[in-house]
Amino acid sequence: QVQLVESGGGLVQAGGSLRLSCAASGRTGSTSAMGWFRQAPGKEREFVAVISWTWSGSNRYYADFVKGRFTISRDNAKNTVYLQMNALKPEDTAVYYCAAGSSRLKMDYWGQGTQVTVSS
Description:
single chain; mainly beta
């Protein structure tokens, strides 16, 4: 099992920035990808960004609506993934979930979520 704990959510004005963190513990060696998803009220959960890695390097993937604004990164030593969110918009308001899995297309573990609210 892998446990994921998110932090860093909060309330910010439009145009502002937040950085989300997701610390993984447990059998982290079984994972090769970690990412962020979000769910706004009344909407389905949607993909935001993911970072996957192998022995040769890592790759990052983003949803079109966050390209150029959000950056996903990983601190291997801390088993932590970050989501730097800049130029936030009210439509970015959602609960953000961290996920981890064996590949970017197979997320097996989920965090409890952290609320991000962007005011206009």
